[in-house]
Recover the amino acids of this structure.
C-alpha cells in the first residue's frame, strides 16, 4: 500500500472544510507549498489527496482511469445537466462520447465559423452602445457564448425561446453555484426559495428542450446542426439516443460550454487592461487578422490571440478543480490512496507551479512560445482536463473565444474601472466575484 501522505491536521468530522471554505484557491496553494506533490486533507467528510505533480495527474486522469471515477461533486452538476457526457460514467459515457465526438471534429466546427462571427458582432454591437461609458462585459460575453452554443445545437438558434432558455439557465445555476460554494450545503431535500427557483428553472429547461426535440423528430429533415446530428447518430449496433438521453446531452453542452467560455473572455479582457504592452500586441494582431483578405482563417490561426487566451486560462482556469473518486486501494508517489478517497487535480495549482512556469504570477505570452511548450511537461497545463474525459468542446471554445476577442479588440479599448480589480470566486467555474464592468472607448 504505502505510507500515509503528509498533510495538515484533519479535525474529526469537519476536517479542513472551514479552512478550505475561507479561500479554496489559497488553501490549495498553501497546502501544496507546505506538503509537496501529494497532500492528505479532509473535505466534506472524505479523505482527499491534493495532487501537485504531472505524474500524479497522469496516473489519475490517464493511467488508472478504471480506478478513478467522477466523484460526488459531479452529482450536484447532474441535478441540472442530468446524465450527459460530463456527469456520466462507464459504458453509457463511452457510447455517448463515440456518438457525439464527430460533431466536434474540425470539419463540423468549420460550419459554425460564420455563426461565431455573427454572434461576436452582436456582442460588439452591445458593447458599442456603451461607448464613452461603462459596459457589463460579463453579460456581453455570456450572451455571445450562449448564442453560439444555442445556434450550434439548434441551428437557427433558439429564436423566441432564447431569452427563456437563458433565464432558466441562469436561475438554475444560481442554486447549483451556491451549493458548490457552501462549505456545508443543506441536504438537497430541504426546500428553500433558491431551490424552488432552481426546480422551476430546471423544469422550464426540460420542457423547452423536450419541445425542440419533439418538433425535430416530426420534421422531414433532422437539420444540419448539432441536434440534427445527435438525432441521427448511431453507435456500431445501430442504436441512437433516446429523447431523454438527447435532452441530457443538450443541457450538458449548454451547461458545460456557456459559462466556461464567457468567463475566460471576461478574465482575458481584464488581464489585457492591466498589461498595456500585451494589450497593444494583441490589438495589433487582432487588427491584422481582421483586415486579412481571409479574415476567418486569419483570426482562427492567430498565434498572439491563441497565447493570450491560453495565458488567461493559465492564471484563471475556469475549471479550477477536477476530482475523482478512488474505487479501490491504490498508491501514488509511495503514499497510500485508500478506496473511497478523492483525488483532487487543480489546474489552478498546476498552472502556477514555479517548476514549470518561468513567470508564474505574470501575464507572459512567452509561456506559450513553441520552444517553451515543447520542453514543458504536457500535464503542467490542463485547462481542458486530460485523458479520455478531456473536454470535448476544446476546439470549439478556442475558436469562438478567438473570434469574440478579435472583434472586441479591433473596435474597442476596454479598461478596468480604477480600484475595481476583479476578484476570483471559485464557484463551479472560476468567475469574477462581481459582474465585470469596464470603461469603453473607441479605438
Ligand atoms: C474555455 C472553455 C472550456 C473549458 C475551460 C472547459 C473545461 C473542461 C474540463 C476541464 C473538462 C473535464 C472535466 C473533468 O475531467 O472532470 C471538460 C469536459 C467537458 N466539456 Fe468543456 N470546457 C470548455 C468549453 C466547452 C464547450 C464549448 C463545450 C461544448 C459545447 C464543452 C463541453 C464539455 C463536455 C461535454 C465535457 C465532458 C466530456 C466527457 O467527459 O466526455 N466544454 N471541459
Amino acid at each position: 500500500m504505502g505510507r500515509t501522505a503528509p498533510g495538515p491536521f484533519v479535525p474529526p468530522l469537519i476536517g479542513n472544510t472551514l479552512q478550505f471554505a475561507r479561500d479554496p484557491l489559497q488553501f490549495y496553494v498553501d497546502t501544496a507549498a507546505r506538503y509537496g506533490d501529494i497532500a492528505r486533507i479532509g473535505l466534506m467528510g472524505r479523505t482527499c489527496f491534493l495532487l501537485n505533480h504531472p505524474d500524479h495527474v497522469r496516473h489519475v486522469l490517464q493511467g488508472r482511469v478504471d480506478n478513478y471515477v467522477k466523484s460526488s461533486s459531479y452529482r450536484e452538476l447532474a441535478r441540472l445537466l442530468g446524465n450527459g457526457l460530463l456527469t456520466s460514467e462507464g459504458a453509457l459515457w463511452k457510447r455517448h462520447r463515440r456518438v457525439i465526438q464527430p460533431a466536434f471534429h474540425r470539419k463540423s466546427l468549420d460550419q459554425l465559423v460564420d455563426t461565431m462571427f455573427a454572434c461576436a458582432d452582436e456582442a460588439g454591437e452591445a458593447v458599442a452602445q456603451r461607448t464613452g461609458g461603462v459596459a457589463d462585459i460579463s453579460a456581453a460575453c455570456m450572451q455571445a457564448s450562449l448564442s453560439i452554443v444555442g445556434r450550434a445545437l439548434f441551428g437557427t438558434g433558439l429564436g423566441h425561446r432564447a431569452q427563456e432558455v437563458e433565464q432558466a439557465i441562469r436561475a438554475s445555476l444560481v442554486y447549483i453555484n451556491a451549493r458548490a460554494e457552501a462549505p456545508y450545503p443543506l441536504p438537497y431535500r430541504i426546500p428553500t426559495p433558491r431551490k424552488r427557483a432552481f426546480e422551476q428553472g430546471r423544469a422550464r429547461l426540460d420542457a423547452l428542450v423536450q419541445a425542440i426535440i419533439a418538433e425535430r423528430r416530426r420534421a422531414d429533415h433532422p437539420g444540419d446542426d448539432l441536434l440534427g446530428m445527435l438525432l441521427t447518430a448511431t453507435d456500431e449496433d445501430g442504436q441512437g439516443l433516446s429523447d431523454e438521453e438527447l435532452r441530457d446531452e443538450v443541457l450538458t453542452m449548454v451547461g458545460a460550454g456557456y459559462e466556461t467560455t464567457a468567463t475566460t473572455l471576461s478574465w482575458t479582457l481584464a488581464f489585457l487592461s492591466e498589461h498595456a504592452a500585451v494589450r497593444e500586441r494583441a490589438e495589433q494582431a487582432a487588427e491584422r487578422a481582421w483586415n486579412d483578405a481571409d479574415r476567418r482563417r486569419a483570426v482562427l490561426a492567430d498565434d498572439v490571440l491563441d497565447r493570450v487566451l491560453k495565458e488567461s486560462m493559465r492564471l484563471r482556469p475556469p475549471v479550477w478543480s477536477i476530482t475523482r473518486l478512488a474505487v479501490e486501494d491504490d498508491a501514488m508517489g509511495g503514499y497510500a490512496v485508500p478506496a473511497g478517497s478523492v483525488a483532487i487535480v487543480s489546474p489552478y495549482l498546476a498552472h502556477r507551479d514555479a517548476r514549470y512556469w518561468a513567470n508564474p504570477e505574470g501575464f507572459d505570452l512567452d509561456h506559450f512560445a513553441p520552444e517553451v511548450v515543447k520542453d514543458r511537461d504536457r500535464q503542467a497545463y490542463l485547462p481542458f482536463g486530460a485523458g479520455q474525459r478531456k473536454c470535448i468542446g476544446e476546439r470549439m471554445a478556442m475558436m469562438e473565444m478567438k473570434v469574440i476577442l478579435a472583434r472586441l479588440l479591433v473596435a474597442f479599448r476596454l479598461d478596468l474601472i480604477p480600484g475595481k480589480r476583479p476578484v476570483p470566486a471559485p464557484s463551479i467555474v472560476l468567475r469574477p466575484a462581481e459582474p465585470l464592468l469596464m470603461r469603453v472607448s473607441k479605438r
About this structure: The chain has a mean pLDDT of 92. The first strand starts at residue 38 and ends at 43. The pocket of protoporphyrin IX containing FE is lined by residues 85-86, 97, 149, 252-253, 256-257, 260-261, 264, 318-319, 322, 383-385, 389, 391-393, 396-397 (CB under 6 Å). The domain at 1-79+321-358 is CATH 3.30.43.20 (Uridine Diphospho-n-acetylenolpyruvylglucosamine Reductase; domain 2).
